[in-house]
Amino acid sequence: MSWKGFQKGVTRAPQTFKQKFNIGELTKDPIYVDAERRFEELEQETKRLKDNSERYTGAINSMLNHQIEFSKACAELYKPISGRMSDPDSFVQEGNPEGIRACEEYESIVRDLQETLKPELEMIEARVIKPADELLEIIKLVQKTANKRDHKQLDYDRRRATLKKLQEKKDKTLKDEKALYKAENDVEQATQDFNYFNDLLKTELPQLFRFERDFISPLFQSFYYMQLNVFYTLHEKMQSIDIGYFDLALDIEGAFAKKRGDVQEQAEKLSIVRPKAAAGKPKPGISKYVSKYAKNPTSSSASTANPEDGIDNPPPPYSPVTHSSLSSPSGHLAPPGAATGSTPLSTAAAGKAKPPPPKPKPRRLSGAPPPETVTALYDYEAQAEGDLSFLTGDVIEIIQRSENSNEWWTGKLNGKQGKFPGNYVQLKS
Amino acid sequence: MSWSGFKKNLNRATTQVMMKAGQVEKTNDRDFETELRRYRTMETAAMKLQKEARGYLDSLRAMTASQMRIAETIDAFYGDAGTRDGVSRSYKKAVDDLDAETVKALDGPYRTCVLEPIERFCAYFPDINECIKKRQHKLTDYDGTRAKVKKLVEKPDKDVTKLPTAEKEAETAKQAYEVMNDQMVTELPQLIDLRVPYLDPSFEALVKIQLRFCAEAYSRMAQVQQYLDKDTRDQYAEGQLDARVEEVLHEIRNLSIAGTV
Questions:
Q1: Does the beta carbon of B19 lie under 8 angstroms from any beta carbon of chain A?
Q2: How far apart are CA A218 and CA A215, in angstroms?
Q3: What is chain B's alpha carbon radius of gyration, rounded to the nearest angstrom?
Q4: What ipTM describes this predicted complex?
Q5: What 8-state DSSP symbol labels residue B155?
Q6: How far apart are CA B261 and CA B253, in angstroms?
Q7: Is residue A24 part of a domain?
Q8: CB contact under 8 A, B196 and A96
């Protein structure tokens, strides 16, 4: 800070203090106050726009990088592993050459994608982030002007207070008269200064806001089209993946289960792998998102998704990972205590999934006479036609249910009838 | 640590020192060493896979999250400027849906088919490493007891009962070691062989999830287009939009509050 600036700061200090604690007469211009508020919003929004655009491009890049690294790691695993690298004879053909080829193909597609997206992302950089940055620069300058106005206001209030004090003083001496004269002059000067800045801001801030609209509209449109292009490119390139290695006709989970088979059980039979530590309890219910996909597979693979789905009452799909190993005869419910001893990674990773719904105790046999009611443990939103939505705590009348809470039950709520996952509710005892 | 554990540790430490000093013969097991190296290679690769699988999900989330915030900001901008023409709304909706429906809907399959299997596989490693450590301990015990026997044979002690006791100890240690070692030598390769069938399905699932994400993201975003003027696209392509942005920036700079005071 310059010496002059410092001096000003010191002389203004008492008035700043007064303003803080609302002492004495203070100037308040409602129009300016409102404009200032909008200005602050503008500043924050511009900053947010810039930051998030940056983050956005960064995230796309890192997504692609992870894709590449993932396939590299896969290829690494598919390679035959030899304990004696220097001995070529020790390489047994135990790897997965087709898998490696698929990895390489995939990697080259993603790399190509990254190349293609590069100019697109640079464009976001040049056409969105840069202008936003420039606007921020300007905003900073405007902020400076606004600060100046605030200072002038302080001066104005200060001078006026001095003048008032002198005017109210009775029996003015000659010295006082002189001071009064000077104070009047000061007030005159301060008023002019203050009004100049105040009016300037009041006329020009609205102009700035108008420009803001003119600014954001083309900016947003550009951004939108760039984004659309990014997604289009992603879509195009990924769609063209024609790696024979992948069975693209099957849906995600179906193919996974099919390909996976009982490998996990095999692995966990090994005594060096202590399954009791790794094997957890069954997956915490079924993520509602999973059920959505399994119920309406968007691909043409509906029939292959869940072969046992032929029944009216399709059970929510098991995640094949753990359940196949634990599948018990239907109707038999494992007591929760049996499985909770360990802390499986899955629950830690389950992040957003619903908490594991405790297994309701089967109080009645399936032939129990209606009406039977259950209480909803969680909110459930209909995922498909014919589903029943409810909120936590709702009491649902059972129309039809099975002993297995991992299946879809039918119930009635508020006159509406529909299906819902049995593990989202608790049976009334 | 228990007292017996402490004693064991002390004994083993002594044996190791003696081994370094060349007093105790060290057993070398080439088969095991080979398998161990193979296992280490696999462990490293699998851990990397786990890291990348997590990173992918994180960056996917980061992308949609920043997109949503951008949409919010733009909507706020538009709202202040008083031009609610439906574009910013529909854009916001598209972006929100993308997050709520597509990303979250793929979250489940991604977890069950990619993340959890990989994490589960990686969760085996600590146990296995524990076994490897244990085998090493047993081996040290065995080597130690054997050295003791050797010493007693070469230089018989006054106490004649010492040799048979030591021999018995050596025999027990040998058995314990062999059980562990056999287990490792037979089972490590089995696990290594299982790595491909175990992890390969996840790769396919990942690719498919990406496919679906890209397809849905594009179709959702494309819907916003109908709210924009037909010629906006051409204007974009011709760079007119950018020119407009520049122009406005220039005008703003000309305001006297922007520094010309």
A1: no
A2: 6
A3: 34
A4: 0.79
A5: S
A6: 12
A7: yes
A8: yes
